[in-house]
Automatic annotation (TrEMBL), chain A:
Superkingdom classification of source: Eukaryota
InterPro entries: Ntn_hydrolases_N, Proteasome_beta4, Proteasome_bsu_CS, Proteasome_sua/b, Proteasome_suB-type
Localization per Swiss-Prot or TrEMBL: Cytoplasm; Nucleus
GO CC term, one of those recorded: proteasome core complex, beta-subunit complex
Protein name: Proteasome subunit beta
Organism expressing this protein natively: Amorphotheca resinae ATCC 22711
GO biological process: proteolysis involved in protein catabolic process
The keyword Nucleus belongs to this UniProt entry's keyword annotation: yes
Job of this protein: Non-catalytic component of the proteasome.
UniProt family annotation: Belongs to the peptidase T1B family.
TrEMBL record, chain B:
Protein name: Proteasome subunit alpha type
PANTHER family membership: PROTEASOME SUBUNIT ALPHA/BETA
InterPro entries in the record: Ntn_hydrolases_N, Proteasome_alpha, Proteasome_alpha-type, Proteasome_asu_N, Proteasome_sua/b
Stated family: Belongs to the peptidase T1A family.
GO biological process, alphabetically ordered: ubiquitin-dependent protein catabolic process
TrEMBL record, chain C:
A Pfam family the protein falls into: Proteasome
Keyword match Protease: no
Broad class of where this protein is predominantly found: nucleus
Protein name per its UniProtKB record: Uncharacterized protein
Species assigned in the record: Amorphotheca resinae ATCC 22711
GO biological process: proteolysis involved in protein catabolic process
This protein's UniProt keywords: Cytoplasm, Nucleus, Proteasome
InterPro entries attached to this UniProt entry: Ntn_hydrolases_N, Proteasome_sua/b, Proteasome_suB-type
Subcellular locations according to the entry: Nucleus
Length: 260, 298, 263
């Protein structure tokens, strides 16, 4: 008697019990992203005299599972800017493709003009704000590093709500708690950042990555780091954290094996 | 033309009894009146050049570009009706973008030529449309290294199942010419428009099939050929517009860009010098250059 | 029961082995996504007889984190250049910074269009009404901000308009908004509008005379603003880092920046 389309491929109630209608949601509300799935953790970045250093590790987690270990979360744009992505990896891929098509469309006009980091940051923040306003957010917090229209170092953040801000040092996620204080010590304000050398900035960022690896359970010791200057982008995607010391571990008291 | 008065030329998509489609042939006539366009496939890149006939002294020099970017690695130039060329570009950009949407990788020049060939051909099939009044030359550099998929996050396994194949060859330079009928072939050197005959004759002298011509030399040759081809059209002034696409190690890093001003001017200077020299010593030049046979086959 | 009145034979008559009308999961799904956040900070505006001052701290926060120490909340509106040099209006926004930014950009575009179409700058009164309309237009998905608009009115007097997130507004002498509004506003009531200030020895009960209200001079107002923020910084963790003041006079808009405590 199962000749009606509604019946096709469905188990009989009299035989298997009532069908669980919650699996059959053809007329339910449209489901938008409610939560990130595969996620990247912190991105950290610091301005210096001639540019910006930005870093993120190569891990993509599936909840607490370290799922993908060679995920490159720093994306270059037009050889002038780097975008560091925290949060959902598939949304990151979507944004990366969007930036790719933006770059291609820019090339249609042979004006020789390229979008600088500030332009890119505004573009990204408008995309993110539009999507949050549609209740269909792109679950990311991004840092945009590069140079502005005056070729001065530029660093700014945008997140899934469309919130934006700029500072001499920035860090997303866990890094906002752990790395940002370390970076602010090195560059408390714009004036201080403008006196930093590339080496000093690199050292501070690498030190931050190390602290994050010690304390962020969703981090790993393989990471990407990029330096953006007038000379271009120096992107390394397979760096290993060096000179780790776990000597402090047995000093830790209050939890684990040493309760007191 | 035997078509006049027969009525077989009055509508598109209709054959004449001897198997011709006159509307398409008329479209070819439109192309033959346009400024000369050429493309040269070099060993490390591709050059496009066009003779831009100046139709008014009130036009700003260097503005109103005739060579367009389709995707980052691909450009197109056309001879014939300029608005038809613009529509061709618009469609080609859509094709390239939609290919990326689907396959997350740049379209190859071959695939783009195929798509656009199909598109032009469709405009020969219906009475409600007319064929494109252009012949387009599409140039591209398909990346010689394995490209990551757009938005790719990892590098995949380096060995074993799904790993990299050692020494696999990818991409390279590509040049296609698409005619109003939808016909397209791949070429070593392509020319269309008013001066195509002399341009083709010059291209044949270059022995492009051997794959020895460098991109830098190709630029100079392209400028020279446009200047030679312009000889058929001498009463009108023209501007030379040139773009190129090099390999990833070259000057454009695989992207389609305008030839920089200094290189363009140097190429023009050499072209002019050679032309002046031509008129003096026509004979010696004929002996110097090996007049090779037809090198146009794919 | 509703089923008794149903004309649908599938629901009532002899049935199949399952309920054929597709059933949706009971109840609507809860959206886990919250489109709002609070970025802290405070703003303050005071009008005088021939000037208006709008001020805001420059700290941006999320939770206990400081996003940045310099993120302006007070903006010039409707100028014709990127530097907004010829602007005549000032908007301050505090609350959800992304909405604040979006609101500012919308109002700025509208005021610019007005200027180009009418060949004169928009009056504060007109802009105030327009801003209300914008806010109310998103009544059911509001801009989560407390906005204050400032300028000079047709008589050249300082004008301050303050708003709730859905566009209810009034012209006021002074207004504090944002995280430390409840700390600053009573201070303003007392110091600007002389609330609870009486003339000593003027009597008791109904005989007691209020201190006469006089418009404050600019330097005194600037000092009030500084004092208000210095105090707010002490008592509110979301306020600090820097104080930005825009002073509107007939000669244009002057900007002042002063450091606040960064703790």
């Amino acid at each position: 008697m199962n000749h009606l389309p509604q019946a096709w491929g469905r188990p009989r109630d009299d035989y298997y019990g009532a069908y669980d209608a919650s699996y059959f949601q053809s007329n339910g509300p449209n489901q938008h992203t409610q939560q990130p799935i595969v996620t990247g953790t912190s991105v950290v970045a610091l301005k210096f005299k001639d540019g910006v250093v930005i870093a993120a590790d190569n891990l993509a987690s599936y909840g607490s599972l370290a799922r993908f270990t060679d995920v490159k979360r720093l994306r270059t744009f037009a050889d002038t800017s780097v975008v560091g992505f925290g949060g959902d990896v598939s949304d990151m891929q979507y944004l990366d493709r969007l930036l790719n098509s933006l770059d291609t469309e820019e090339a249609y006009t042979s004006s020789g003009h390229t979008l600088n980091a500030r332009n890119l940051h505004i573009y990204l923040s408008k995309v993110l704000y539009k999507r949050r306003s549609d209740f269909n957010p792109l679950w990311n917090q991004v840092l945009v590093a590069g140079l502005d229209e005056e070729k001065k170092p530029f660093l700014a953040s945008a997140d899934l709500l469309g919130t934006t801000f700029s500072a001499p040092s920035l860090a997303t996620g866990f890094g906002a708690h752990l790395a940002q204080p370390l970076l602010r010590k090195v560059a408390p304000d714009e004036e201080a950042a403008a006196t930093l050398s590339k080496e000093q900035a690199l050292e501070a960022v690498k030190e931050s990555m190390k602290v994050l690896f010690y304390r962020d359970a969703r981090s790993m010791d393989k990471y990407s780091i990029a330096v953006v200057t007038k000379e271009g982008i120096d992107l390394k995607e397979n760096e290993k954290l060096e000179n780790q010391s776990w000597a402090f571990a047995d000093q830790i008291r209050g939890y684990g094996t040493q309760v007191n | 033309m035997t078509s006049i008065g027969t009525g077989y030329d009055l509508t598109n998509s209709v054959f004449s009894p001897d198997g011709r489609n006159f509307q398409v042939e008329y479209a070819v006539k439109a192309v033959e009146n346009g400024g000369t366009s050429i493309g040269i496939r070099c060993k490390d890149g591709v050059v496009l050049a066009v003779e831009k006939v100046i139709t008014s002294k009130l036009l700003k020099p260097g503005a109103n570009k005739r060579i367009a970017t389709i995707d980052r690695h691909m450009g197109v130039v056309s001879s014939g009706l300029v608005p038809d060329g613009r529509h061709f570009v618009s469609r080609a950009r859509d094709e390239a973008a939609s290919w990326r949407q689907v396959y997350k990788t740049p379209i190859t020049t071959k695939d783009l030529a195929s798509r656009m060939g199909g598109y032009l051909q469709a405009y020969t099939l219906y009475s409600s449309v007319r064929p494109f009044g252009i012949t387009a030359i599409v140039a591209g550099w398909d990346s010689e290294v394995e490209l990551p998929v757009d938005g790719e996050v990892g590098s995949g396994p380096s060995i074993g199942s799904g790993g990299k194949v050692e020494g696999k060859k990818f991409g390279g330079p590509a040049l296609y010419m698409i005619e109003p009928s939808g016909l397209y072939w791949g070429y070593y050197g392509a020319a269309t428009g008013k001066g195509r005959q002399s341009a083709k004759a010059e291209l044949e002298k270059l022995d492009l099939a051997s794959g020895n011509l460098s991109l830098q030399d190709g630029v100079k040759e392209a400028a020279k050929i446009i200047y030679i081809a312009h000889a058929d059209n001498k009463d009108k002034e023209f501007e030379l517009e040139m773009t190129w696409i090099s390999n990833l190690d070259g000057p454009t890093k695989g992207r389609h860009e305008e030839v920089p001003k200094d290189i363009l001017e140097e190429a023009e200077r050499l072209a002019k010098k050679e032309l002046e020299g031509d008129e003096d010593e026509e004979e010696t030049k004929e002996e110097d250059k090996p007049a090779d046979g037809d090198k146009m086959e794919e | 029961m509703a089923a008794m009145f149903s004309q649908n034979p599938l629901m009532n008559g002899p049935n199949y082995s399952f309920n054929q009308a597709p059933v949706t999961a009971a109840g609507n799904k809860e959206h886990a996504f919250n489109p709002y956040t609070d970025n802290g900070g405070s703003t303050l505006a005071i009008s005088g007889s021939d000037f208006a001052i709008l001020a805001g701290d420059t700290r941006s926060t999320s939770g206990y984190n400081i996003n940045t120490r310099y993120s302006p909340k007070v903006f010039k509106i409707g100028g014709t250049t990127s530097t907004q040099d010829d602007a005549t209006l000032v908007l301050s926004v505090v609350g959800f910074a992304a909405d604040g930014e979006a609101l500012k950009e919308r109002l700025d575009a509208i005021v610019k269009m007005y200027r180009y179409q009418h060949g004169k700058p928009m009056s504060v009164k007109a802009c105030a009404q327009r801003l209300s309309t914008i806010l109310y237009g998103k009544r059911f998905f509001p801009y989560y901000v407390h906005a204050i608009l400032g300028g000079l009115d047709e008589e050249g007097r300082g004008a301050i308009y303050s708003y709730d997130p859905v566009g209810s507004y009034e012209r006021e002498q002074c207004r504090a908004a944002g995280a430390a509004a409840s700390l600053i506003m009573p201070f303003l009531d007392n110091q600007v509008n002389f609330k609870n200030q009486y003339i000593p020895g003027s009597g008791v009960g109904h005989e007691l005379q209020e201190r006469e209200k006089i418009p404050l001079p600019r330097n005194e107002v600037e000092d009030l603003v500084k004092d208000a923020f210095d105090s707010a910084v002490e008592r509110h963790i979301e306020v600090g880092d820097g104080l930005q003041m825009l002073i509107i006079t007939k000669d244009g808009i002057e900007e002042k920046y002063l450091p606040l405590k960064k703790d």
